[in-house]
From TrEMBL:
It comes from Actinospica acidithermotolerans. Pfam families: LacI, Peripla_BP_3. The keyword Nucleus does not apply. This is LacI family DNA-binding transcriptional regulator. GO terms for molecular function: DNA-binding transcription factor activity; transcription cis-regulatory region binding.
Amino acid sequence: MAGIKDLARECGVSVATVSRALNGHPEVSVETRRQVQQAAERLGYRPSQSARALVRGRSDAVGLLWDSGYETAGRKHPFLLSLLVGLKQALSDVGRHLILLNVDVDRQGPRAYLDTARQFQVDGVIVMGVDDHRPALRELFESSLPCVAIDHDIAGPRACCVTSDNRAGAVEAVRHLHDLGHRRIATITGPVDLMPAVQRLRGFQQAVGELGLDLPDEYVQNGDFFMDSGYACGRRLAGLPKSRRPTAVFVAGDEMALGAMHAFADAGLDVPEDIAVVGFDDIEAASLVRPALTTVAQDSLALGTAAVSALLDFVDDRFGDRPAPESPILTPTRLVIRQSCGGGR
């Protein structure tokens, strides 16, 4: 395969002129640019991405930090996989590449994320599913490298957060159950140190308070976003005396909702006749289980598009002249009504 020196010899110009011609430099004449491009096509020349990055001051690549914060027994949460597809599509639409950064924080130390991102010369970093308490994360956000976190409450000179409107989604779910006649409504939360779980719990509490509903302590069960915890919490709710047992439950994640539905079935309770269930996420399994799960849908493509758009705004604003966006940037949710709380499709 031809190199840039071969192109220079073929065209009778310097290597620097070839480089400028290939990168659309205005000082190169139209004729020279055409000559170089034709020679490149004829000789099968493919420019080095790293060399182009040095010349243009950007790599057209975005780094993804996706750690093990949501991992249980070697499994990843299905919504994170859907979100990854959303990110990939949003970046493909603007001609950018996505690089998964493999970082060993324990070995590399508190600058691990920042040093790795700079080593691969990425234009910016998208963060999801990473432990919020790692010092390496703070080092990254407080640097000048553009960063956007999905579902992490972050702050920095060139950093912001993108998340679904979790609170509004939870409020809508509880109000829907109330409209169906339910007055004893419980919840199964996600991990209360994670931003989405906190916001969904606050939305649940807001709706319950606005509707004047009682909220006994046992109506708030703490889960971890995975099915086994949903099952365990569901068993505890099902075990309450019938006079105190909730008639409906808002579950902060679909995997937990599926686990809770299994627990209710094992306890001899019918969904939705004895207890209605609403989840959150709208993972693929939500429409496949029977009865199909009513849930608050997040839009993974909208999240990915918002994250990419915010990141590229930071990248384009190389000197920090523009005001930082208000953080968090919220994407809307919508209630998908199926059979698990009666009626639906």
